[in-house]
Design goal:
Largest sheet: 6 strands, mixed
Low-confidence stretches: none
Number of helices: 15
Oligomer: single chain
Shape: globular
Structural class: alpha/beta
Number of strands: 15
CATH architecture of the largest domain: 3-Layer(aba) Sandwich
CATH class of the largest domain: Alpha Beta
Helix content: 25-40%
CATH topology of the largest domain: Cytidine Deaminase, domain 2
Radius of gyration: 21 Å
Order of helices and strands: EEEHEEHHHEHEHEEEHEEHHHHHHEHEHE
């Protein structure tokens, strides 16, 4: 099959729509179930490239959660500590390495991942399929599916869940094309390899970088390679915890991603873990309530309305002082940027979210001031010399 007809393009008024191979060869994928749309395929093909590169670079199963052609989460299959099992709702689940990767990718920013597209680097096993079955998502792409796992996935959305199998050996042509306003653009594919060599040029006074930080910076940079620019990615313990995408200002991107990273950290606070939710409350309603509890003032959260709908009793206020005290204990977060930091304000904001290690392109006229900011705050920064814009 070298063509697949779509219901419509980005929007229902954009017809006709299809995906096809311009060179006449067969498509390197197979739709096993459902009828994916234009945006589904955009998410699927970008997310597959991300997890494939993570697996190649780090040697661990990888997963990604995509929304609107940018990752909400990406991770490798490291074991989950008990607190993450709880906030990801997998305390009583079987967790294979691939399932751990998916739980991390889906759980980092649950608000953004609602209704996501999933990519898996390895054959989908039953444990991972069961986790996917419990979440709201549009579909999944993987190099294969265990028979029982495929059966589980096909029951989602009353049998209409989108399941795509990708040829893991497919290599695209070196040149890629797209049209804008009837004009064809051509460029070489961004096939640059991201590995430890890219973060070897450490420019700060502190040049210590443990293997865990190298892993996390590589994960961050590969994630940025498939994130709409401007983009910044915070990573800790093998998973993205805050992705900021598509911002015109880099510092706004750093703030957005940092706020998401803070939310991930604050969800592990004892007050959040012990919130008295009503029995039978859906995961989406619980996620929304947690987000409100963390992001708003105590008066907003404990007022009449929200607590009566979702909590069995009025929760204790979560004060700004308590939040700041908790965040001040967060350490060893890694951060990647898809281009240089033009000012030290990006570093200042990252530091507030526990960032210790940074990888950025370098090349700003203010590189010296950015380095000075890192030195003052005791951070380690590498210049990659590589821009990773993605549009």
């Amino acid at each position: 099959m070298n063509e697949f007809a779509l219901k419509y393009g980005c929007n229902p008024n954009q017809k006709p729509a299809r995906i096809f191979m311009a060179n006449g060869s067969g498509l390197p994928l197979e739709v096993l179930n459902g009828r994916p749309g234009y945006i589904n395929f955009m998410d699927a093909l970008n997310s597959w490239q991300l997890v494939r590169e993570l697996k190649e670079a780090l040697g661990l199963p990888a997963a990604a959660s995509f929304k609107h052609v940018s990752p909400a989460g990406a991770a490798v299959g490291l074991p989950l500590p008990d607190v993450l099992k709880k906030i990801y709702f997998v305390e009583d689940k079987e967790l294979t390495p691939l399932a751990c990767a998916y739980a991390r990718a889906r759980g980092a920013d649950r608000m953004s991942s609602f209704g996501d597209w999933i990519a898996l680097s390895d054959t989908c096993d039953v444990a991972t399929a069961k986790l996917i079955a419990a979440e709201v998502s549009d579909g999944v792409i993987a190099p294969g599916y265990e028979p029982d796992a495929f059966e589980i996935l096909c029951k989602k959305k009353k049998g209409a869940y989108n399941v795509i199998k990708i040829d893991p050996d497919y290599v695209p042509e070196k040149l890629e094309h797209k049209q804008v306003f009837g004009i064809t653009f051509e460029q070489g594919r961004n096939d640059v390899k991201i590995d430890e060599n890219l973060i070897s040029n450490i420019v700060t006074k502190d040049k210590s970088m443990p293997e865990s930080a190298k892993r996390d910076l590589i994960l961050s940079l590969i994630t940025l390679k498939y994130t709409q620019s401007n983009s910044v990615c915070y990573v800790k313990d093998g998973q993205a915890i805050g992705v900021g995408a598509g911002q015109q200002s880099r510092v706004h991107c750093t703030r957005l991603a940092g706020d998401k990273a803070d939310n991930w950290s604050l969800r592990q606070h004892p007050k959040v873990l012990s919130l008295p939710f009503k029995e039978g409350l859906g995961r989406a309603d619980r996620d929304n309530a947690i987000d409100v509890y963390i992001s708003r003032t105590p008066e907003d959260v404990t007022g009449e309305g929200l607590w009566q709908r979702v909590f069995k009793e009025r929760p204790e206020p979560f004060t700004e002082a308590e939040k700041r005290a908790w965040l001040d204990k967060v350490t060893d977060v890694s951060l990647g940027s898809d281009a240089f930091f033009p000012f030290g304000d990006n570093v200042e904001r990252a530091y507030k979210s526990g960032v210790k290690y940074i990888a950025q392109a370098g090349g700003s006229v203010r590189d010296d001031l950015v380095i000075e900011t890192c030195d003052r705050l005791g951070m380690v920064m590498a210049f990659t010399g590589l821009r990773l814009f993605h549009h």
